[in-house]
Specification:
Elements: E1 5-11, E2 44-48, E3 63-65, E4 85-89, E5 93-97, E6 103-107, E7 113-117, E8 148-155, E9 161-164, H1 171-178, E10 196-200, E11 207-211, H2 226-230, E12 238-244, H3 253-267, H4 269-272, E13 276-281, H5 294-302, E14 308-311, H6 320-332, E15 359-362, E16 369-373, H7 375-383, H8 389-401, H9 404-410, E17 418-421, E18 424-427
Parallel strand pairs: 1-3, 2-4, 9-11, 9-12, 12-13, 13-14, 16-17
Antiparallel strand pairs: 1-8, 2-7, 5-6, 5-8, 10-11, 15-16, 17-18
Length: 430
Amino acid sequence: MFADRAKIIIRSGKGGDGHVSFRRELYVPNGGPDGGDGGRGGDVIFEVDEGLNTLYDYRHRRKFKAQDGEEGGKRRCHGKSGSDIVLKVPQGTVIREAGSGKVIADMSGENRRQVILKGGRGGAGNQHFATATMQVPKYAQPGQPAQELEVLLELKVIADVGLVGFPNVGKSTLLSRVTNAQPKIANYHFTTLNPNLGVVDLEGGGFVIADIPGLIEGASQGVGLGHEFLRHIERTRVIIHLVDAASTEGRDPVEDVYTINKELKAYQEDIAARPQVIAANKIDAIQAEAEEDPVEHLKKEFEPAGIQVFPISAVTGKGLKELLYHVQELLAATDQKPIVFEQEYFPEEMLIDETLPYTVEKSAQEPGVFLVEGPRIEKMLGYTNLDSEKGFVFFQNFLKDTGILKDLEAAGIQEGDTVKMYGLAFEYFR
């Protein structure tokens, strides 16, 4: 079975707790605190696997968890960090937050590997809490809790061209004729149940074409498997409408084009606005005694609107060369940048507790240095991957949205001054 959707629960590892212990050695009756720090919890990472083409592995297992960090030990021993969990998905998988439907990550284009949930930071052992007035601290910091999130995985195939049409108009036959794909071909009145991909090789450059499973009226409202099919056309740049010009099943090819465009527009308006071409298939089966040539009827209806009509026979191969070179021209005239869905949901946001305090102050010891500290800052940094571009964007938005940048300006920060946050230092620019 082809699986292109799955809903799963992912959980990062909890940070290990810091340890409370004291040095106990012969001739050292009053040894100081020596509790070690806890290990960091494991991350949840998604990674593209070129060998996969379905989400089948996630249909029968619902929960995926990274390893927790170990507790710190005696004698300043650090706890072992938890192992990450790496979830392999096919290229083109979009990861959404299940409740809101917002995009967390699109595993396509250059995005081959992304940390979705960071593991909790390990807690500090009691060795860090000794002071002149508290030389025997019996307190250690607990590790940061794990993050848990329900996500929806959706596979949206990556193809330059989407081949659409009603069931049994010859899409599978056409795809097998013009590409290296080997779809199942039969006189099915229902439809192919999974999108087939094939590569068209032409002089001057080829392209990837996807046979989108047959659409029916009402598909945009979810009738039949409408939504399951329509999501696969979202990345395509050009659309080929394949119609049965011979009306072998009694349908009007002109009405078929209008019906399909109506469904595309109802699902997502910009898809229907993409460049289109009509392939009038089964010309070898057109009856000679027909009152009007159906191909001419299609041309009169759609070519004034800028949609070219090409008479073809997927069985004999007639007219295919002209059709494919026209599609190549349409692709050359469109934006070459692949369609990638931008991140809309940042899992770190659910961890920001706006009731937690923070402080912004000018350093008394270091000129031109400003210190930002407090539980809200520490918690945010513990879960944010600043090594990634998206994580750093979230960090910048956090500084702005929480009012930290305003507080720094109120404290007198100037361009070129340094901001320090728990070991992180960066230069301030307006």
